[in-house]
Amino acid sequence: MSLPRSQAADTAPSETVIDCQIDKIHYGDFLAVRDSKIPIEQKKITGFIGPSGCGKSTVLRCLNRMNDLIQTFRFEGQVHYHGQDIYAKDVDPVVVRRYIGMVFQQPNPFSMSIYENVAFGLKLNKFKGDMDKKVEKALKRAFLWDEVKDKLKASGLSLSGGQQQRLCIARAIASEPEVLLMDEPCSALDPIATRQIEELMLELKNRYTVAIVTHNMQQAMRVADNTAFFSVDISQGGRTGYLVEMGSTEQVFENPQQTLTKEYISGEFS
Ligand SMILES: Nc1ncnc2c1ncn2[C@@H]1O[C@H](COP(=O)(O)OP(=O)(O)OP(=O)(O)O)[C@@H](O)[C@H]1O
Q: Which residue intervals define the domain ABC transporter in the entry (predicted)?
């Protein structure tokens, strides 16, 4: 089974690559997210913002079925990747994650060499071509090659936090996904490493479609083309996240349509 992928050269830049319609997401009996429609546009960075617990990470992880690994997780809705529902019965989540890769909050290189970290997914996918070339290309695209080219056999864990996160990005892009999901990729990093990752994201969007969860609104403003603002509904006695509004980052920050968005943004900036 394979999933369709964009022919980048002959598609318009604003094509929707992932169209996510969430009706309900439960963890056990807990309704975590409801009624949210989130289109992810090709070769753009989409930022997810909102208060703690509003479901940003849950929604992001839905986009490549990463939540399937949680036993209590239940999804009602559809996530269409180029029109194909990735939650359909015959779709293998492992294949989904080959097209839609993920980078986590804590840099999590494997306890193996820098080279092996990048080659890991390729070996898993039984890549038969020139591995050295692939590893070099991924490390170059992750802006890490110059810093590690003379120590590829050193442990990935010997790198600094920022370098480890760039290594994880290299690992994620080595198998050429189309979409990269990033769950607060800078939250464990200092300001300099954060800035490097932000610059890298801006470069990556020339080749990849990116969605990022961030707590940092300035970061969303710096990197995101589109922004989705989520909030928490406590009206029924629960704490259920939902999408309040989504649009271009400029529109959401400068001309929000919803009072909740206005209040959240002005609260953060005043
Ligand atoms: N594995 C899980 N089991 C049970 N509940 C969970 C699980 N993961 C998340 N939740 C709950 O789902 C809701 C949404 O969590 P999520 O982590 O997606 O929110 P978030 O907006 O990313 O939060 P934060 O900004 O604090 O990281 C929260 O109430 C959280 O407690």
A: 17-265
